[in-house]
Specification:
It is an enzyme of class 2 (transferase). By secondary structure, the chain is of the alpha/beta class. 43% of the residues lie in helices and 18% in strands. The protein is globular and about 65 Å long.
Length: 509
């Protein structure tokens, strides 16, 4: 694809839009979404045209005219168009809660015992992807780069291939090794779908290697060829040429660093430290999910206090848990278990003037998030498995004085980049994590600053814009500079019936 064609903008397709629709007191409103994909793509896409296609997070029937009135101003502010997909309640149940969250998510995170391989899930998975395909074709042309994101939309490339051949795919979660992937009843179909893209990209070399091993096992006669032109990537020799590579996602380092240095955040960080009366603060910020290792973290912290009574009253674990998938039974059960475990540890160690765990279940704004990062002496990222984990990078970016310590799971994708500066841990090893916590709390200033400086340089050198340039260049010979910032023009389409037409939104626009 030429740069001239690419200058029309590209199309981002993901399960969710960067905003969600919610109802409060009978009034519909739009709020910002959360998650690594939104954090990474939003700053890089700002004002560059193109479109973002995704679900609004609700199965309620809403007039399309009303949806348009809510999304229009946000599209203008962000500089890229938001195009919604609509799902019925049954589709949400079978596609999102079912195939995505009861099959792919646990399987790809090495937790196959949590999988429920229901055939009706697969049928709805394909049906919903057809909805995405219809909207994508409607709002693009053959020259647009279609950037499909994550496991919800694996089939989309194959559905678009004839009409929209310039499709690239990025998997934000890990890709499992063959002994796990081969348990998927639809393994052959999923492999064929992943091979339908021009570029199939992963977070780490380990994920790309796992994919290639699965490909060879399912296609023993095919060849894997090393790509020319530098960098680590492969071409797969089959009916449709696919390039495979690893592109570790990152953050807008300068934004987070600037936010952490701002007077408002510095003031809030100081207030947080004063509220904890000079105690050392260990911080965990996680979306509610069983892959994040929150229970294991709590138990390691309990073991630390049990083994070293001198720390009683001198250290607090602050845990911010961001609500997620609250309509999924297993996630509601997980939250209850986390609540109980936090309460048990607090009940065991708390005194009249000290609580060992400060536990919050809520979302927070960017300033408050940066203040928590900056106030924390130790950052805890102890996920059982993670594609990347951007919290680890945000924590480092918010320590411009190099005064924090990061404890990082060796099973997080970011451990590949940050392992030399972080204290890496096996999240299944309670004693090992307790030892790491103790080491972090008593680390000499010189070592602490050296480690943090090393991680910050790495993140600054490979920020979200470098990540996007690398991906776009491999996918289509583009860079962000070839997608210049501009005002968002109105949609000009062939005449058709009014958008509202008195209908509710139950299909696609």
């Amino acid at each position: 694809m030429s740069q001239n064609h690419g200058s029309k903008g590209f199309i981002v397709v993901s399960n969710r839009l960067p905003v969600v629709l919610e109802e409060q007191n009978g009034t519909l409103s739009v709020k910002s979404g959360s998650g690594g994909l939104i954090s990474a793509l939003s700053p890089a896409l700002r004002d560059r045209g193109g479109s973002w296609i995704g679900w609004l997070g609700t199965s309620e029937t809403v007039r399309i005219k009303h949806i348009k009135s809510l999304l229009g101003p946000i599209s203008s502010q962000s500089g890229y168009r938001l195009l919604p997909i609509f799902m019925t309640h049954q589709e949400v149940k079978l596609f999102y809660q079912g195939f995505c969250n009861e099959i792919v998510w646990p399987l790809f995170h090495d937790l196959q015992s949590r999988c429920r391989f229901d055939p009706t899930y697969w049928d709805t998975y394909l049906k919903v992807n057809q909805k995405f395909a219809k909207v994508t074709v409607k709002h693009s042309d053959r020259w647009n780069l279609i950037w499909v994101n994550d496991y919800h939309l694996i089939p989309l490339g194959k559905m678009l291939r004839d009409k929209r051949p310039n499709c690239a795919f990025f998997l934000h979660i890990p890709f499992p090794p063959p002994d796990i992937f081969m348990k998927l009843p639809w393994r052959q179909q999923v492999m064929e779908q992943l091979l339908s893209y021009r570029l199939t990209a992963f977070q780490t070399d380990r994920d790309a290697d796992n994919f290639l091993r699965c490909f060879k096992e399912l296609n023993p006669r095919s060849r894997v060829m090393t790509r020319k032109g530098g960098g680590r990537g492969f071409k797969l020799s089959h009916q449709w040429e696919t390039v495979v590579g690893a592109f570790p996602i990152s953050i807008d380092f300068r934004y987070f660093e600037g936010l952490a240095k701002s007077p408002a955040v510095r003031k809030k960080a100081d207030q947080i430290r004063r509220a904890h009366q000079g105690r050392r603060i260990m911080l965990g910020i996680d979306r509610l999910d069983y892959t994040k290792g929150i229970l294991e973290r709590f138990r390691a912290f309990e073991l630390l206090l049990q083994r070293d009574p001198s720390l009683l009253g001198k250290v607090t674990l602050v845990q911010l848990l961001v609500p997620s998938r609250e309509d999924v039974t297993s996630y509601r059960n997980l939250r209850e278990e986390i609540d109980r475990e936090a309460g048990r540890i607090i009940g065991r160690f708390a005194t009249l003037d000290w609580i060992p765990i400060t536990y919050m279940y809520q979302s927070v704004g960017q300033e408050d998030l940066a203040a928590l990062y900056r106030a924390a002496h130790v950052g805890l990222v102890t996920s059982l498995k993670d594609g990347m984990n951007l919290v680890s990078k945000e924590y480092c970016a918010c320590h411009p004085d190099n005064d924090g310590v990061l404890i990082l799971s060796e099973f997080a994708g970011s451990a590949v980049e940050l392992g030399a500066g972080a204290i890496t841990v096996n999240p299944y090893d309670m004693e090992g994590m307790a030892n790491a916590m103790q080491k972090a709390l008593f680390m000499p200033d010189e070592e602490r600053k050296r480690r943090m400086s090393l991680m910050r340089r790495r993140i600054k050198g490979w920020d979200v814009f470098r990540w996007m340039d690398s991906f776009l260049n491999t996918a289509a010979g583009l860079t962000l500079s070839s997608l210049p910032k501009r005002e968002l023009p109105p949609i000009i389409r062939r005449p058709r019936a009014p958008l509202d037409g008195g209908r509710g939104a139950s299909g696609s626009v």
